[in-house]
Each structure stands twice: as C-alpha cells, then as structure tokens.
C-alpha cells in the first residue's frame, strides 16, 4: 500500500496518540513546546481511504550557516513496524523531509528487539567471563524486530555510531517493570531482598511520599543540583522543568507528576513521572546527600510504580541503562539498582540515521560534538 505523508494539526496528532495503547512522550505534539529551540512539525500517514494510520513528531535542528536541517523523530514515528515492507511507510517520510530541506533524518523506534529477565541479568553480573549483556542469550527475541532491522539496512538506514558526537540520542537499552496481571503484593515479591528491605525501612523511618506541583519544582531542583554535583553529570537549567510541566499538562492534565519524599520535614528524594496511555516513565530523579539511610529513593520509586499500576499502566519504565555487566565499569551500579525492581532489561530496535547529504551530516556531527 502506498501511504501519503503530510503535515497534520497538533490536535489531530494528539487524537491519534490517544487511541494508541502507548506512545512515547517524545512523540506527543506537546513535546515540541518543550524542545522550543528546535523547529517542529506533526506528520500523518494516510492510507488510500484517507484514514490517518500513523503519526510522528519531527524536530528540526538547523546547521549554523546553512538552510538545511537535521530532521529528528525521537522514539518515533508511530507506524506499523511489523509491516512486511517498511519502505511503504518510510519512503513517503523521506520524500516529505527532503522537500522540507533535511540533510539527514534520524528515527528511533521503541519496538522491543530482545529482553533479559532480572534473574538472567543477575547471573550475567555474577559471571566473571561476561562483560556485556548483549553477549548473553536473551529470554525473548522479537522476530518482527529482527526483520525490521534487516529491512532498515536494506533501505540505506544505519544505526548511529556510539562514538559520534550526535550519538547521544535516546537510549537503546532500558530497564522496565511489566505490570500486566500483577498486583502490589506480586510486584513487591518480585523485587530483590534489598529493595524490599529498603522500602520497609523507609516506611518504618517515617518517610512520606506525596505528589507535588509546579510550585514545588524549586525544591526538586535544589536536590537535583546536589545530585548532579555528587554523581558528576551536567544538570539541565531550572527553566527546562517548568516549561516541561506547562507543555505536557496543557495536553493532558495527568501527563506529568512530581513526587516528593520527606523525612521529618526534610526533602530527601524527588522524582518526575510521565505517562502516556498504558506506559509510565521515571523521567528525572534527585536525592539529598543527607539522610541517605532512610531510603527515600526506594520509597519514591515504589510510590511511582504503585501509582502507575493504579493508573492502568502495563509498563513502568526506568529508562536508560547500558548493556555492561562488567564489575570494573562505573555504569554497572545503574543496572544493579534497577534490576532490584525485578523487571527486565530491554533492547529496542533503536535509532537509525539516513544521511541525505553526507558532507552536511558529517559537519553537523562535528558541530554537536564541539557543543558537548
């Protein structure tokens, strides 16, 4: 079937997303307002009956000194990735973006390619001969993702190299907790002993987790900056968070939440939770250096998991990990923390690039690398 791709309104895009089981929050029209430094466009795929059957948010970043732009669809578009011929879906997208002046296109699908259970991940960490989870046989393998991978390569798309300047897109490896068919007791039982003990310890210590509002973002940001200094990452400016809340709440009054964990009046942890349909994400987290022993971070995670369950979600997503299981790798602690929830490590089909002008594509990569 030949699809037509054209610009659609933000309201039509939001209505399409609303009837999907789950769509990445990065593919909501509201996300364009969050990424205001990029240009943006909502696109729709129409079948031969004129029905809207696919959608995507395109972000445009212009290369300084040129009229051409990178066209980026983070964790999108929302199309039939199990299609026998992805060319029917992607070729009209490429044609549209060429006409829009794109020098390269980056797409990023959250189709699950492989999964590893918590038990498999723990065994891999314990095995001194294993350093990468990708070398471990998965518990599940999605044949449709394997076919899509081969088809993308055939069509000229390539995964971005991990050492490229613009490679820091959306994570291909994530950790998720499946919620379907489970209650709170089963979810708690699925966690490891340390997580269960820490959740109980927080409750016994009197940690109280509440939902905050935009007016509480300065408190969140205070310990977020503290976390950034302690963990040595570059924090976002404060202005990013009110803008994110304003944009996402304008589209859905329960799209984003702020959770605050207090102990005897002191803020010990805070997190940002986002939900679209049946998928909830742990988006940002912060914890105070003081009172780490009361386990506020575990308490606030448990609150978000249980509220995702109550909201009818099928997945609670703790977002990015790396595939390392090497004890010498500093990233190991991240997967160890998340694996304690009893969920699963997931590899997505991930991000793919199609350079339309290789010289400009390389120039953009150098530009992004220098920007850090």
From TrEMBL:
Gene Ontology MF terms in the entry: aminoacyltransferase activity
KW S-adenosyl-L-methionine (keyword) present: no
Gene Ontology biological process terms, A to Z: cell wall organization; peptidoglycan biosynthetic process; regulation of cell shape
Source organism, top-level taxon: Bacteria
Keywords noted in UniProt: Acyltransferase, Cell shape, Cell wall biogenesis/degradation, Peptidoglycan synthesis, Transferase
Pfam family, one: FemAB
Xref: InterPro entries: Acyl_CoA_acyltransferase (IPR016181), FEMABX (IPR003447), PG_Glycine_Bridge_Synth (IPR050644)
PROSITE patterns from the UniProt entry: FEMABX
Family: Belongs to the FemABX family.
PANTHER family documented for this protein: LIPID II:GLYCINE GLYCYLTRANSFERASE
Record's protein name: Aminoacyltransferase
Organism (species): Streptomyces boncukensis
């Amino acid at each position: 079937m030949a699809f037509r791709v054209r610009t659609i309104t933000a309201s039509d895009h939001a209505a399409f997303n609303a009837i999907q089981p789950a769509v990445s929050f990065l593919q909501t029209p509201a996300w364009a307002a969050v990424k205001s430094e990029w240009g943006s466009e909502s696109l729709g795929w129409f079948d031969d009956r004129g029905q809207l059957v696919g959608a995507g948010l395109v972000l445009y970043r212009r290369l300084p000194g040129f009229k051409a732009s990178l066209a980026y669809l983070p964790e999108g578009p929302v199309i039939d990735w199990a299609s026998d011929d992805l060319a029917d879906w992607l070729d009209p997208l490429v044609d549209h973006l060429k006409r829009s002046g794109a020098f390269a296109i980056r797409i990023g699908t959250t189709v699950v390619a492989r999964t590893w259970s918590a038990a498999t991940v723990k065994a891999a960490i314990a095995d001194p001969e294993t350093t990468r989870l990708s070398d471990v046989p998965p518990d599940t393998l999605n044949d449709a993702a394997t076919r899509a991978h081969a088809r993308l390569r055939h069509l000229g798309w390539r995964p971005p190299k991990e050492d490229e300047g613009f490679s820091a897109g959306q994570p291909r490896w994530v950790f998720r907790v499946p919620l379907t068919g489970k209650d709170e007791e089963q979810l708690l039982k699925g966690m490891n002993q340390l997580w269960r003990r820490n959740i109980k310890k927080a409750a016994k210590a009197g940690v109280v987790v509440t939902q905050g509002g935009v007016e509480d973002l300065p408190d969140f940001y205070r310990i977020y900056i503290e976390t950034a200094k302690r963990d040595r990452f570059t924090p976002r400016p404060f202005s990013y968070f009110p803008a994110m809340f304003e944009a996402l709440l304008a589209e859905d009054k329960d799209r984003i939440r702020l959770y605050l964990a207090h102990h005897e009046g002191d803020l010990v942890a805070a997190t940002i939770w986002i939900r679209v349909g049946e998928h909830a994400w742990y988006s940002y987290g912060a914890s105070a250096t003081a009172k780490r022993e009361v386990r506020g971070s575990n308490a606030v995670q448990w609150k978000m998991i249980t509220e995702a369950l109550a909201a009818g979600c099928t997945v609670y997503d703790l977002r990015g990990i790396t595939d390392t299981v090497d004890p010498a790798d500093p990233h190991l602690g991240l997967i160890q923390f998340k694996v304690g929830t009893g969920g699963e490590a997931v590899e997505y089909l991930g991000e793919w690039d199609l350079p339309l002008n290789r010289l400009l594509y390389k120039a953009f990569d150098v530009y992004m690398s220098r920007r850090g």
